[in-house]
Design brief:
This protein is α/β, with parallel strands linked by helices and 643 residues long. The protein is 48% helix and 14% strand. Helix 15 (379-399) packs parallel to helix 17. The longest helix is centred in the N-terminal third of the chain and has 31 residues, at 110-140. It is elongated, with a radius of gyration of 35 Å.
Length: 643
């Protein structure tokens, strides 16, 4: 019933406002004459009423004070009302002065106008506030109301409260704000108390809390994680407000408040990079990104677009994802800033055409096959893309005088246990040996060396990225939405995680600081137990692990190992000026020998001889020991031969 009242026609509000101003005028007359009703001149009173009504109709229509929804009255409405009444009073003063100047008899005095203005402001504001709190009271009477506390009593917290007030259908009630700032504790925001966040666990029990909403953008990572853990232990749902630029708009809705993402709990403090150095280095440069439509490639493109580069060439073999990226960039950038090039890095002629046409100064090589189980069953394709594709782009970079070539590698290249990781390690070996031995390149490439600058080859190595295509987080989300089960391969499996923007910022930073030949290793923080992540994601969805959503262990997949490494036992690291980036000291390889080994590997890949392909990979990468794979038998045969 009451929900229908929040759309009262504007003309009704307008009439009420005019009526209250007339009542304010009557009260002003009574007060002016010391409550002596007989002393009031009825004729002068009638003239005053007619004049005031006429002036207010014109002024109120001009200021639009009737246009706001009464139950959403805010400070902005009060300002508009004050402005309208000020305009009305000044008009009455002006008319009063005109009457006196023309020798007329004034029927409304200056004192009455002042008193009338004060009464009008009180009446117009008071009835709006009464209506507002009446509706709030009715809404809070619902027996099934969800009890909420808002973490953060700043600007975002106030925006959250305002959004709740403006939504007539929300079945939630804010009981209190909680904040870590002792200066705010004990105060109130719009009648809602601010309590100490240190007492949150006690407050959850005391008020039988259902939800906590994070309404702050400056909560330290560790603090946020602690609060989430406290809430989940007490079966309290945790929500998050949208980004600042969205949440500060006037058209926000409670439905925009979403479950907190696991990415926010696995992320670390934001990484800073030297934008000035990167800007200076990339200014005006033509930059090629292979695998540009993928998770990492597309984010590198987005971050490069923030710098004053020359043309950015986005290359990928996938037409649809490349088109999506093209349309995204078209919304915010000029067509001359980028070019979408469809092509496969394995196609040497197509890639040669690309390099010859655009002659890029920088190359970020992100094109690769990355899914471990898929590559375990398709070794030839892994070699053709991850190794031959890398070799093709690297060789063309030298031929066309690319200044820097930055390769995106993986922690799975360290002590590889699968085809994918071993293929990326072989690609690393080729790139690094090429950098160190450019003089040993074949004649068609070396002919260009006298005309072109020597290319600097840089490798970046990091672990899993949160939210990337095919990663565990999107998979778990889908499984939870379907009602489970959530599948984990092994109860003890762990992984390092990094957000996509964080990884790409480090790629750009490493690329700018590299002098050639380095393998840069990123600080991935602490490894995360996958089963713990699964449980937390279920809890964040407001469900109970192994009750509402089952967790099923499916066994390690082909080529999968329990934990990843960033360096093998024979390697160590050197620090750089960036605390999150280190240089890995790895064994160097003879370029001529590497070329010979790869030539044999490519020949085997062409005829799809998987057994011989893997044997050759193990020859190139001796530390490659297959795990949970059909190729484990090759390691046993090799062990027998060594005895």
């Amino acid at each position: 019933m009451f929900a229908k009242l929040d759309v009262v026609p504007r003309w009704v509000i307008f009439i009420i406002d005019i009526f209250l101003t007339v009542l304010a005028l009557l009260m002003a007359k009574v007060v002016r004459h010391n409550f002596d009703l007989e002393a009031i001149n009825v004729l002068a009173l009638n003239k005053s009423i007619v004049l005031t009504m006429g002036v207010n109709m014109a002024v109120f229509l001009s200021f639009g004070i009737y246009a706001g929804i009464i139950r959403y009255t805010s400070a902005e409405d009060s300002t508009r009302i004050l402005g309208a009444l000020t305009g009305s009073s000044l008009t009455l003063f002006f008319i009063h002065a005109l009457i006196i100047s023309f020798g007329g008899v004034p029927f409304i005095s200056t004192a009455v106008i002042i008193i009338y203005t004060l009464f009008s402001f009180v009446f117009l504001i008071t009835y709006r506030v009464i209506v507002k709190y009446f509706f709030m009271y009715i809404k809070n009477l619902k027996l099934d109301t969800i009890r909420v506390m808002v973490y953060g009593a700043g600007e975002a917290g106030m925006a959250t409260k305002r959004t709740f007030d403006h939504d007539p259908y929300v079945n939630k009630r804010i009981l209190a704000f909680v904040d870590d700032d002792d200066r705010k504790v004990g105060k109130s925001i719009d009648g809602i108390k601010i309590l100490d966040a240190k007492d949150l666990e006690e407050l959850i029990v005391k008020h039988e809390l259902d939800e906590v909403i994070f309404a702050s953008y400056s909560i330290p990572f560790e603090r946020k994680n602690h609060i989430v853990n406290v809430c989940l232990e007490n079966k309290v749902k945790v929500l998050n407000i949208p980004a600042h630029d969205v949440w500060t708009r006037k058209d926000t809705k409670v439905s925009q408040i979403q479950n907190i993402n696991i990415e926010e709990l696995l992320n670390r403090d934001s990484i800073t990079m030297d934008n000035k150095v990167i800007q200076e280095e990339l200014k005006g440069k033509r930059i090629l990104i292979t695998g540009a439509a993928g998770s990492i490639g597309s984010e590198i493109v987005r971050q490069l677009m923030k710098f004053n580069t020359g043309m950015i060439i986005i290359c990928d073999q996938g037409e649809t994802p490349l088109h999506h990226l093209y349309m995204e960039l078209s919304e915010t950038h000029q067509p001359s800033d980028f070019f979408a090039f469809i092509g496969d890095v394995r196609d040497k002629k197509r890639m040669d055409f690309l390099f010859n046409k655009f002659k890029p100064h920088y190359v970020y090589h992100a094109a690769a096959y990355k899914h471990v189980p898929m590559m375990e069953g398709n070794p030839a394709e892994s070699i053709k893309t991850n190794v031959l594709g890398t070799k093709t782009i690297a060789d063309l970079s030298v031929k066309y005088g690319v200044e820097k070539f930055v390769m995106i590698s993986t922690d799975k290249a360290v002590n590889p246990t699968n085809i994918m990781g071993a293929s990326k390690r072989i690609a690393e070996i080729y790139v690094q040996s090429l950098n160190n031995s450019l003089c040993n390149l074949d004649a068609t490439i070396s002919d260009w060396l006298s005309m072109k600058p020597v290319t600097k080859f840089i490798t970046t190595r990091f672990g899993n990225v949160l939210g990337s295509n095919g990663s565990v987080v999107p998979l778990f989300k889908q499984q939870i939405e379907k009602g489970g089960p959530v599948t984990v391969t092994h109860p003890d499996i762990t992984r390092y995680f990094m957000t996509i923007p964080e990884a790409c910022r480090l790629v750009l930073e490493a690329g700018s600081m590299g002098h050639g030949g380095e393998i840069f290793i990123f600080d991935m923080g602490k490894s995360v137990k996958i089963v713990d992540m699964a449980r937390k994601m279920i809890q964040l969805a407001g469900l109970i692990p192994d009750v509402d959503i089952k967790i099923a262990f499916t066994g390690l997949r082909p080529g999968e190992k329990l934990y990843e490494e960033l360096l093998n036992d024979g390697e160590n690291t050197l620090p750089t000026h960036h605390e999150k980036i280190m240089i890995g000291k790895v064994r160097e390889h003879d370029f001529a020998e590497v070329k010979e080994q790869l030539a044999e590997l490519f020949k085997l890949a062409t005829i799809n001889d998987n057994t011989q392909i893997v044997l050759q990979m193990k020859k190139i990468v001796p530390e490659f020991v297959s795990m949970n794979s059909v190729f484990e038998k090759l390691d046993r045969v090799q062990e027998d031969c060594n005895r």
